[in-house]
Amino acid sequence: MNEQYSETVRLAQRLIQFDTSNRGGGDANPELPAAQFIAAYLTDLGLQPEIYEAAPGRANVIAQIPGANPELPGLVLHGHLDVVPADPANWSVDPFAGEIRDGMLWGRGAVDMKQMDAMMLTAVAELLRAGEKPRRNITLTFFADEENGGVFGSEFMVREHPEVFAGNGYAISEVGGYSIYLGDKRAYLLQTGEKGNAWIKLRARGVAQHGSRLPVDNPITKLAAAINRLAEKEWPITLGETTSNLLAEIEKLTGPGSPQELVARTGAAATFIDATLQNTCNVTRLNAGYMHNVVPDVAEAVIDVRTLPGQKEATLAEIQEILGPDIEMDVQFSGIDLEVPFAGEAVDAMISALQKHDPDALVLPYLLSGGTDNKALAELGISGYGFAPLLLPPELDFPAMFHGVDERVPLAALDFGHRVLVDLLREF
Ligand SMILES: [Zn+2]
Fold first, then answer.
1. What SS3 string covers the chain?
2. Could you list which residues have their CB under 5 Å from ion ligand 1?
């Protein structure tokens, strides 16, 4: 490792070099080598990490760190070890080399989320090496399989080993804590909620027949028409607690405007926020037919539905109504929504740790249009936040980095995040 870079940068780089690509549906490179590397690092700090394999190689690593005030509700500080795949042909660098160029660390996982894994590790290391304890107990957790809904990761751990998380009241992890710009003012988005998700399979049935005959009852055209009706549906803008708070803050800073206008003022972050004002449906798979001259008797599609807090059931019912009685609909996966108040001791501690290192920082709540491992931990009554603190330059289109080509993060942002997390562990 090159000593000219900080330990956080070097660790993030090393973690990127473990190709933990997750292709979904149980098809993934094992997380085990990365988990063993992290376990060795934690053992060197005097901790007793445990590796839990949900399937061969699909490894989760967990270490308990006693706090100075063990009677306080504990904190699950968690990251995930897997990444989405990267096609090297599209990238300017080898996505798994951990290249450092132009003051940035490049590679798959540089923002989702090996940078936070490294920041968490070096923040804990800094305290323990100085003989300090975090203020409250920490369950330091690195999950497998997050990009596949946590089947071999958070869902497995919460179901099979809930005792690991006993005594915890809070969780902190990814997709929040990064800076955005509102005009010349820097603000940080603190994630205090997640939309719900449902992956639904649609099926149209018809009559199989020779492709040369007059069309009778073709399931493909029936399904296509139904999907088009769904695509044309305009879901209303509906503000909940988190999004109302966020827009009120943006309005205070930049003046009045419609919800869409206010969101647009957040620059690149608008692409993250706009989908949090309404429900969304996207067709993601289509499957029908097996021969050019045979009309099949069935056609199928998969829809990725994301729902605002509290709206899952009503939304699915409305979708079925739009599709009509001829389309069968199976909910194949359903994930809960989350929303916690933008207030309380955890929120205060995160804001104060940020402002210690960026005194003028504004902190705004936001709802995540996607999902994280916080959904699984919520089943244990643990309140989760997205807070991977990064001070970013205005010109970086950060939301585009998630699952994007040429994923990269400024080195200075990693060192900033490390310092904020050190203070958070000390003070919270
Ligand atoms: Zn992630």
1. CCCCCCHHHHHHHHHHCCCCEECCCCCECCCHHHHHHHHHHHHHCCCCCEEEECCCCCEEEEEEECCCCCCCCEEEEEEECCECCCCHHHCCCCCCCCCEECCEEECCCCCCCHHHHHHHHHHHHHHHHCCCCCCCCEEEEEECCHHHCCCCCHHHHHHHCHHHHCCEEEEEECCCCEEEEECCEEEEEEEEEECEEEEEEEEEECCCEECCCCCCCCHHHHHHHHHHHHHHCCCCCCCCHHHHHHHHHHHHHHCCCCHHHHHHCCHHHHHHHHHHCCCEEEEEEEEECCCCCEECCEEEEEEEEEECCCCHHHHHHHHHHHHCCCEEEEEEEEECCEECCCCCHHHHHHHHHHHHHCCCCEEEEEEECCCCCHHHHHCCCCEEEECCCECCCCCCCHHHHCCCCCCEEEHHHHHHHHHHHHHHHHHC
2. 112-113, 174
